[in-house]
């Protein structure tokens, strides 16, 4: 992974500040309906690496995108044997560096070490937060383990290479992120 030791601590701090605690997950009206029950949480060194072939540039081009997630360590209050998960995808898309700071929708499936899986859908947003690009995915588990539960994932990746690419001063061949995941009922 391309994360350096110097960035590891600041990225952990960004992740810790970005994940709300259960009482903070309030209803849209602003009041807490009930304390959310934490189904599973995965924390760093959980990680994601995305590779782009050919490397991303400031202009859109057809790119093969390979995404690999390692969720570990994970702790589940309802599934004691659940300790880790993985997700790998390969797709061909029109992509550019500015896309790394975009908003959109997602559907993803996590394969747990128990042999079960969870599919979640929702929306994502990405922002430049100083030395990191923070990608926030929020939605609902739509099938499999934890169906109906809330899904929140935060990815934090170093921003320097991406920002240079957006400015037309380089390319991005891969991007590594630290990952925090919470699934709550």
Can you give keywords for this protein?
elongated, mainly beta, 185 residues, 2 helices
Proportion in helices: 10-25%
Helix/strand order: HEEEEEEEEEHE
Strand order of the largest sheet: 2-3-5-6-7-8-9-10
**Unreliable sequence segments:** 1-34
Classify the oligomer. single chain
Strand content: over 45%
Task: Please tell me about this protein's structure.
The structure is a single chain. This protein is mostly beta strands and 185 residues long. Helix content is 11%, strand content 52%. The chain is built from 2 helices and 10 strands; from the N terminus they run αβββββββββαβ. The protein has helices spanning 5-18, 160-166; strands at 38-42, 47-56, 61-71, 74-76, 85-95, 104-112, 117-129, 132-144, 150-158, 172-184. Strands 2-3-5-6-7-8-9-10 form an 8-stranded antiparallel β-barrel. A hairpin with a 5-residue loop joins β8 (132-144) and β9 (150-158). 31% of the residues are buried. The model is unreliable at 1-34 (pLDDT under 50).
């Amino acid at each position: 992974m391309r994360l350096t030791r110097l960035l590891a601590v600041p990225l952990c701090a960004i992740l810790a500040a970005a994940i709300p605690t259960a009482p903070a997950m309030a209803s849209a009206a602003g009041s807490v309906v009930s304390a959310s029950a934490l189904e599973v949480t995965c924390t760093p060194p959980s990680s994601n690496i995305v590779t782009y072939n050919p490397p991303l540039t400031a202009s859109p081009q057809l790119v093969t995108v390979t995404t690999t997630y390692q969720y570990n360590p994970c702790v589940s209050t309802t599934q004691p044997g659940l300790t880790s998960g993985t997700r790998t995808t390969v797709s061909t898309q029109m992509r550019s560096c500015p896309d790394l700071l975009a908003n959109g929708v997602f559907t993803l499936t996590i394969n747990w070490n128990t042999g079960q899986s969870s599919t979640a859908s929702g929306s994502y947003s990405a922002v430049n937060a100083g030395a990191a690009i923070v990608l926030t995915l929020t939605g609902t588990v739509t099938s499999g383990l934890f169906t109906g539960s809330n899904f929140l994932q935060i990815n934090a990746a170093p921003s320097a290479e991406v920002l240079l690419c957006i400015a037309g001063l380089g390319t991005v061949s891969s991007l590594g992120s630290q990952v925090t995941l919470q699934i709550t009922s």
